[in-house]
Amino acid sequence: MRAPTAQRILESARKLFNERGIMHVRLQHIADEARISVGNLAYHFRNKEAIVLALYEPLHHSQQHVLSLLRQVPLFVQVHELLARHWGVQLAYRFFYLDTLDILRLYAPIRQRHRAFLGWQQSQLELMVQFNLARGALVLPAAAEPARLARALGQQLDHFLAARTIAGTDSPAFEDFATAFWQLLVPWMSAAGLEEYLSLLQREMPPSTPPQPDFS
After folding, report:
1. Rounded mean pLDDT of the chain?
2. Torsion sign over Cα 82, 187, 120, 76
3. How far apart are CA 77 and CA 182, in angstroms?
4. pLDDT of 206 above 60
5. Of 57, 84, 137, 138, which one's alpha carbon is 20 to 30 angstroms from that of 145?
6. What total number of domains does the chain contain?
7. Is residue 215 assigned to a domain?
8. For residues 2 and 213, is the Cβ–Cβ distance under 8 A?
9. 131: containing domain
10. Does residue 30 form part of some domain?
11. How far apart are alpha carbons 149 and 79 in whole angstroms?
């Protein structure tokens, strides 16, 4: 269990990283936001790397929890629920999705774990594609590879926020995120799959409230 001050430091750092980007936040900024001295901050976290590593733990846990939805029967409705939860994680840890390359370059422990996660994500998305092929919701040409489609879906999940921000959309909506993902699948949907997808659109969008990070 982390001390209340340590939890406040992490929450302050997350807030500032989300607002300014990880490269533009110094320990003094975090200390000021947490209303403590830099010395007090250093007592809990010796440097900025220690803070980033501590923030990565709940992010990594959230990513794994969201992706575990695909271990269930990944019908389109479950896939859409995954999108909603994934979006909530992106809002909560916006800095990671915008500054991924810088973070992976700077922090080797995160680089290793995140690459392992991406490999697992690829395998789970490929299984999702294979499942929906088997049940007839998707139909791929003989020359098409499910792995390639799964890779494109994973890139959409991970890089949507950065791509929209680069294009000048600072606050994209969940509907934009979900639509961008589904549009990769629509060309490969069978008549039954398309009917299922259109029926899904008629439902109320699930909430995409950011999860409350557990820094304990």
Report:
1. 92
2. positive
3. 12
4. no
5. 84
6. 2
7. no
8. no
9. 56-201
10. yes
11. 15
